[in-house]
Amino acid sequence: MRVQRFTVGLGVLLVVAVLFTAFYFQLYRVGTSNDRAIAVMLKSSNVRSDFWQTVRDGAEAAAKGSGVRLEIMGSLQDTDAATQVRLLEDVLIRRPEALVVAPIEDAGVAAMLDRIREAGIKLVVMDTPMQLDFDAVTVSSDHTEAGRQAGGVAVKEAADAPRVAVLSDFASSGVSAERVKGIREAIEPYGDSYAGTFYGENSEDKAYAAAERLVSNEPGVNAIIALNESAALGAAKALEETGKRNSVKLIAFDSSLYEIKLLEEGSLGAMIVQRPFNMGYLGVRAALKLIDGREVSRLTYIDSIVVTRDNMYSPENQKLLFPFR
Amino acid sequence: MLERFRDRRAFFPIFPLKSIQSSIAFAFSVLILLTVAATSLIAYRLSVSAVERNSKGYIREVINQVNTNIQSYVDNMENISLLAMTNKDVKYYISGNSFVGNGNEERRPYEKRISDLFQAILYTRKDIASIMVFGYNGRFVSDRRITTLNPNAKAEEQAWYKDARRASGKSVISAPHVQNILQDEYRWVVSLSRELKNSDGLTADGIFLVDLNLSVINDLLSQINLGKKGYVFIVDRSGNIVYHPQQQLIYSGLRSEKIAEVGSAPSGTAFKVEDDEGKRFYSVQDTSFGWKIVGVAYAGDLIGYRSTLINFLLITLGGVAVSLVISVLLSHRLSRPIRNLQRNMRKVEKGNFDVQAEVAQMNEIGQLARTFNMMVGQIKNLMQEIVVTHENKRKSELQLLQAQINPHFLYNTLDSIVWMAETKQHEEVVLMTSALAKLFRASITKEQELVPVRIEVEHITNYLLIQKMRYSSKLDYRLEIPDSILEYGTLKILLQPFVENAIYHGIRNKPGIGTIVVRGMETGEGIVFEVEDDGLGMTEEQLEKIWHAPDGERRSGGIGIRNVNERIQLYFGRSYGIAIRSELAEGTVVTIRIPKTKGTGEPDDAGQRAEGSAS
Questions:
Q1: Least buried of A258, B104, B325, B463, by fewest C-beta within 10 Å?
Q2: Where is the region Disordered (chain B) (predicted)?
């Protein structure tokens, strides 16, 4: 009797040992690794959008070697909320383990994200601080801090007597609002330094018109901070034509080839540049951590960089301004 | 015995299992596990190091390939620069003491020829982005017919320009950078620049520039397969990263790279890094132009690594499983004879002494079984002996009882009393009756077997008195008992049978008066009684018959000598007993030897001691 119990005990011990080693060394995986997928929703999948293509590079760098497949998608236009909603519906059907999304600010998108979260898909929000009904893990540039950086440049350029006008896109834009907040925080201590925010939507022409109006109505303005590319281009054109290129400093957000040229020729005083590679990388890393059930900080900020004509060709900034692929 | 047993027990808690089999199995298992673990660990280490060695070799091979490729691109650029250097047109065109006038008409053909040359090179080499010459005289020519330089970028301020001037004649390789010297072209390139010397070899005329498309190197490096996570990166002489797939992460501090270790590693070597990123191998290779190409491969990715691990685990587990089963079987086999023995012992415990353990082998357990068998046999004999002894004792006691109240003796004595009464011999009647009464009281009332010599003497005196009155014409007697032995203990009615025999067999049939002498003596070892008669005596054969008379057969009215002897030996041990000397027509002397025993009041004690010494 005792002998049998002993033998059975040994057998059980052996089986346990085998199973333990099998799982410990992951000799046997639950499901194949190909089944594990993370969907990455970019705001724009346009190959000409350097920013989002770099986000994509970062995402791929993070996924490399992790055994997880990336499904990268996005609407062609970064304002096409309807397409993004449709793509999100697709995600809901395919049910990847996690979704890393740069949402377009839209009620339909927010509703879809809610549904995706309820379906048990881990969610990481990139780029845009979205007003959602729940606390999503967010990986984003610190737009307020970037605004402060821009404001700081304006203060320095104006020799501590700034009078700053902000050229924004839409009043409803969350990102722009945060940037404005940061700018105002930076210039607040210098008395009557804020000349107001003006809106040029996504149109260079409208921004041009707004800037032209601004410089004629507000002659005291010595710095314009353009919150997006079209605003920067429009304002640069207006300042050039009104001959105020030297008296009014132009500070822009984000980078494009046109902006780089403006920076090179001196029309643009500085650019506040995000790190899209890091955003994609950290977004996917956060998703991987969520899948593994590890702890993830709810909010990860990515710093921005002030690029001027002098440092634009430094090895580090070159990489940011001229994404290579 | 007990001490040693206690010592043994001290070792037992090492195997706190109850059965020997479990203990043996446990010990075997531990031994086997340790051995298997040790050997497989060593074997695993050996094979892992073999895999690592192979992997390092593989990485080195790959890095060598990369090196060769990049080197060939650089060599190619070098050759192009040599071509430019030796080209007469270029020389004249940028020469300080100009052969070529500044007039448009004069310059054009040179520019065209140089441009054509550069273009021809560019056609053959897809990897080259651009070829340019900047003369110190302000002239400039490129591979394009119409070249617009970026008005915001001055050639003199570019790193490649300055480095080439500093190197004065030697070619300089730049890190990958964005070439912004041409308007509206922002290409990632690697530049080779070189100062062009005048024919005198001392003064310089300008800077020559060849740009290599970075995509060529990028494609090359990204095609390299070093496992899922492995990658290649390049650092320059001063430790700056030339190329890294995750350069941006390194710049923003999200990732670190082992630049310092790479910097100090000599060319062609590899080293191992193990941190939270995982175990990986760095293989470093220097290029002739100052770059270090580094291949990084993750141990987990390498072919053979995982399979080695799996094989080892499987072999180890299989070995352990087999050996555990064997250990259980072995321990079962080894402990089986012990369990058999144990089973037999249980039977003995229950009282079955006919058990014989099977002796299969003459090993320790076989010997144990044999000893066990012998022990059981001996116990069985002893038990039988005890049974026989008890029976004898009981028999002798019965005989004793019969001797005490020998009915013939009683009838004869009573007849004598009646006869004496008839003849009005009142005094004799009184004497005899009282002697008879004393005789019976002495023998019956006392329950103890062991009595003082005094009582026995009294008894024999009374007996002899009665016999003397019956056989007055025939019997005479003497008692020679010293006072010193009176208080020693002796068996009850020890002497009567011999006196009785002497009367009935020695004296009764003898003509004339016979004398019986009863003597008591104290010797060194004990007490000796002698019953001597001068009767008929016995022949050798008769004497022999007395000793060998079959059990139960005895002469009428007497007790077998053998029984008395046995009785003495039962009580006092084998060294005591009876000896008979007899001579025909002379008489017989019976010598009875008993020990000196004091405690006459405690016969149990004496009895016990006697039994103890007898066993």
A1: B104
A2: 595-615
Find the closest chain A residue to B326 by CA distance.
A7
Buried b / exposed e over A81-108, threshold 16 CB at 10 Å, is: bebbbebbeebbeeebbbbbbbbbbbee
* Nearest CB neighbour to B324, from listed A14, A61, A321: A14
Predicted confidence (pLDDT) per residue in B498-507, tens digit: 888 888 888 8
Residue B26 lies in a domain: no
What CATH number corresponds to the domain at position B515?
3.30.565.10
Contact flag A257-B218 (C-beta cutoff 8 Å): no
CB contact under 8 A, B178 and A3: no
Q: What is the pLDDT of residues A276-320, one digit of tens each?
A: 888 999 999 999 999 888 888 888 888 899 999 888 888 888 888
Pick the last residue of a domain from B194, B217, B240. B217
Instruction: Please give the residue range of the domain that contains residue B183.
Output: 87-217
Distance to chain B for A305, nearest Cα, Å: 10
Summarize pLDDT for B375-406 with one digit per residue, the tens.
Answer: 888 988 998 899 888 888 777 776 666 566 66
Q: Is residue B144 part of a domain?
A: yes
Indicate the DSSP class of residue B445: I
- Pairwise CA distance, residues A229 & A257, whole Å: 10
Domains in chain A, ordered, with CATH?
Answer: 39-135+282-302 (3.40.50.2300), 143-273 (3.40.50.2300)
> What pTM did the predictor assign?
0.62
Return the residue in A29, A319, A321 with the most chain B beta carbons within 10 A, the one to mutate for interface testing. A319
Q: Does residue B147 form part of some domain? A: yes
Question: Closest by alpha carbon to B179, among B190, B194, B170?
Answer: B190
Cβ atoms of residues B48 and B299 within 8 Å: no
Q: Scanning every residue of chain A, which has its alpha carbon at the shortest distance from the alpha carbon of B314? A: A18
Instruction: Judge: B248–A319 Cβ closer than 8 Å, yes or no.
Output: yes
- B317 and A275 within 8 Å at the Cβ level: the answer is no
Three-state secondary-structure class, residue A273:
strand
